[in-house]
Design brief:
39% of the residues lie in helices and 24% in strands. With 248 residues, the protein is an alpha/beta fold.
């Protein structure tokens, strides 16, 4: 079965510092891959490379069997297929919730306002925010803003979604409402790559775990094997740290 998205020997430098050291990665259609690893190991940089927000120095990014990191690549078109939700929401403060959601489909995809509005309202209802369509970002909680950001990305009808630490800036009581939305997307078969430090969430949602350390994929496999008997000492220490913190 051909991968939906894959990388071959992906290399990323910042000046003389190598962040990603030849990443070979793949995700199948409807698969959920969770990327774990210590801070600074290259997880978020890797996601940003996948939809052209960071330039790579070597390697290939392949979507639907086609190499997409070429000089002729229109990354604005690619980002319609590879949606991304960030830690910091990225909502326009001067626009209402509905206006934020409609902007991309109307401007980038030239879709009809009636059709996009209908889709947006259905998605807002699905995430429990149908009554917030006319609210502005300053009137929303962090969890509500993040759910709007997810709806905005979904309204572009992407083939795959990237989630970069989307709960990292949220208060603990707001984390669950965002993770519940992602769990629901997984049940519906959305292809997703998720960078997170929420270990219990990773166990619940992942079809595959990929463990990054110092710019390489140190280990990958199914969640049960990874969480019960990691193959590397580094992954074991990483999981032991979370088990230790969870004991308090």
């Amino acid at each position: 079965m051909e991968a939906l998205l894959q990388t071959k020997n992906l290399v990323k430098f910042y000046d003389n510092h190598q962040i990603l050291k030849g990443i070979d990665f793949s995700i199948q259609k409807s698969q959920v891959v969770v990327i774990l690893g210590p801070s600074g190991c290259g997880k978020s940089t890797f996601l940003r490379c996948l939809n052209g927000l960071e330039e790579i120095q070597a390697g290939q990014i392949i979507l639907d069997g086609k190499i997409i990191n070429t000089p002729k690549t229109n990354w604005n078109l690619i980002r319609q297929k590879i949606g991304m939700v960030f830690q910091s929401y990225e909502l326009f403060p001067h626009m209402s919730v509905l206006q934020n959601i409609l902007l991309g489909p109307l401007k980038a995809q030239n879709r009809k306002k009636e059709e996009v509005s209908s889709q947006a309202l259905k998605l807002l209802k699905r995430v429990g925010l149908e009554n917030k369509q006319n609210a502005y970002p300053k009137e929303l909680s962090g969890g509500q803003k993040q759910r709007v950001a997810i709806v905005r990305a979904l309204c572009m009808n992407p083939e795959i979604m990237l989630f970069d630490e989307v709960t990292a800036s949220l208060d603990p009581e707001m984390v669950k409402e965002v993770l519940d939305v992602i769990l629901e997307l997984a049940k519906e078969g959305m292809s997703m790559i998720i960078v997170t430090h929420e270990i219990k969430f990773a166990q619940a949602v992942a079809d595959k775990i990929v463990f990054f350390d110092e710019g390489i994929i140190l280990e990958e496999g199914n969640p049960k094997d990874f969480f019960t008997s990691p193959k590397t000492e580094r992954a074991k220490k990483f999981l032991d740290m979370f088990n230790f913190l969870g004991s308090f």
